[in-house]
Amino acid sequence: MHPQRLSDTSMDSGQIHSLENVTVAKPSEKPENAQRILIVDDDPDIIESVRYALENNGHEVLVARDGNQGLVMAEREDPDLIILDMMMPKRSGFLVMEKLRRSSRQAHKIIMITANEGNRHKAFAEMLGVDDYIRKPFNMDQLLESVARILED
User: How far is 117 from 121, CA to CA, in rounded Å?
Assistant: First the structure.
């Protein structure tokens, strides 16, 4: 983090105090080596809980709320990892994966999350090259372990 140096003065109880030698870190700055993770999901509760967990583990988080937006952001932002919901409005996670696999120069690392219990869906996701397939509801530790393992490769 790059500290911000304050050289202004501030008012406190009607008195002026100099802040000449005070250094304050900007809380919104991410570590320079933070890996970027794109969450593509239409459920606001899942987005916020996953975002919170990832940011607390030092990752930079991008969010798309449907499949079309996720596809555009994945192509434009080139994240280190995509956490992709299977069932979404406008374009399913499968269609997003198929399009990314056909159009991208290099394969994106993808964790698919789904409430679907079917084994056919898991097999299809694996055929498309998903790195991990996690069923909802999931334990956040399970997701974080998967993220760490995939990003190490």
Answer: 8
